Amino acid sequence: MPIKNLWGELPQADEVQSPASLLRGQAEILSEQTNGFLSGDVTTEAINDEIVTEFFVVAPFLNNYRVGILRIRHSALMYPLKITNLLKDRYSSIECTDAKALEDEIARILNSTEVHQIISSLFTQSQK
């Protein structure tokens, strides 16, 4: 006897990018714009009842030196989520209720003076 489907028709994935996917795209852009001297690394893990995604800037020519830039935490539902700037406000998070708010906050962090100073310093030190 065949197994009866009790799920009904399952929903398809949303067209909205996941936080991890959005950050992986930014990692690719960083590598392209620095000709591979710097790259981004995105890690995602389940911690208790949350999904935690972190973004690092990596300097491959400096023995893979890594700097944590931001952390995103959310439940099985992507929104609302909390984003933390690891360079500035390590213990305070901003809540984002949708993809637009998340993109705006990531842009604010990646365009910050602190991040640009780190990029400049690591890029300079990575060149021979």
Describe it for me?
This protein has 128 residues and is an alpha+beta fold. The chain has one domain (19-126). It is 32% helix and 29% strand. The chain has three helices and five strands. The chain has helices at residues 19-33, 99-110, 113-126; strands spanning 39-47, 50-59, 65-74, 81-85, 94-96. The chain has a five-stranded antiparallel beta sheet. Strand 1 (39-47) and strand 2 (50-59) form a beta hairpin. The protein is elongated, with a radius of gyration of 18 Å. The mean pLDDT is 93.
Keywords:
5 strands; 128 residues; 5-stranded antiparallel beta sheet; alpha+beta; 29% strand
Low-confidence stretches: none
H/E element order: HEEEEEHH
Task: Determine the number of helices (DSSP H or I, runs of at least 4 residues).
Answer: 3
Estimate the strand proportion: 25-35%
Mean pLDDT across all amino acids? 93
Strands side by side in the biggest sheet:
1-2-3-4-5
Q: What is the general shape? A: elongated
Helical fraction equals: 25-40%
The radius of gyration is 18 Å
The secondary structure category is alpha+beta
According to DSSP, the number of beta strands is 5
Number of domains: 1
Major sheet attributes: 5 strands, antiparallel
Oligomeric form: single chain
Distance between the termini: 68 Å
